[in-house]
Structures are given as C-alpha cells and as structure tokens.
Amino acid sequence: MMTFRWLGLAGIMWALLACSGTPETKISRTSSNPPPHNYVGIQIPPMPEGSQTELGYLLETENPGKFSIEVVNVGSLKAVWMGSFLYHDDQGKAHWKVIAALPPRPLPEGYYFSSGNCMNRGNAQPEIVAIIKKEDKKMLTGIKKAWRADPQKKHFEELPPAGIQCINEGWNSL
User: Fold this and answer.
1) Rounded to the nearest 5°, which phi and psi values hold at 42?
2) What is the pLDDT of residues 146-163, one digit of tens each?
3) Cα–Cα nearest to 100, from 62, 59, 133
4) What does the alpha-carbon distance between residue 130 and residue 39 come to, in Å, rounded to a whole number?
C-alpha cells in the first residue's frame, strides 16, 4: 500500500513539474491558439525564445523617430510587431522596443502577411499590413484582414479590406 502511495505521489509531482513554467516560454508549434504573451514593451535583440523574424522594414513616417514593422514567426503562428528605434550598440547593431503588436495567429491555408507594399485606393501606404491570398497576378486584392500601423498612437488600426491591394513581389519572377 505504501509503494502505491509513493507511485501516486511521484506521478502527481511529475505532472506538476511537466506543466510548470510560464506560458511565454512554452509556445506550442502545433497549437492554433495564440500564446498569451504580450510582446509590447520588450526590447529586441534578443528575440524571444521560439520566435524568428520573417520580414521587416523601416517605416518611413512624418513622425519624429525611426519605426519598424516586422512579421514574426512564433512557432507555426504569425505575429506583427511595430518597433521604435532605441540605439545602436558598440557593434553597430540596432536595438528596438516593440510599441504595438498584432497577436500571434494561424493564417488560413493559401494566405500570408503582406507588408510594406500595399496601397489603399491607389495610394501607396507602407504602413498597411494585410493578410492576403496568394495568387498568380501582379496586384493582389484577396484581402482577408488589414491594419494600418500608427506610430504616433502606438497601435494597429484595423482597416476595411475594400480598396486595399498589394504588389505581388513574387509575380512573374520565374
């Protein structure tokens, strides 16, 4: 009977240890639910564990300061961060602070984030980030969702997809 209790107690302890840790450090690569981590306020580098920049660019705005947009792979999910430049270190590497973030999300099959090459009603607006359908044409219009990065207000404003189109950078490149 004593052995059974020890085995039961050992099993409970193992389960508790296996499940311990913060949600921020345990990002499931197969989960469709976004991890609960809020990236706003973190400084880059280093990138958070389990995340990797897919694409990034400087956002040219009329606002003072330097801002960036990054599409980030968080396991199998995609997130978008807006960063504010902090400083260059002794090796010349830029350091940024995340000032706004779209939470990690799974993208529907056949869609991707297009960023830095979108237009709204024919006007180029590099601050637009869109979830867009992959198609074999020069201008992509299959917008599922779109946002405008606003560095002044430090947030992403959701936009209606109507009137937004993005340049297909991979079109006719074969």
Assistant:
1) -75, 155
2) 999 999 999 999 999 999
3) 59
4) 19
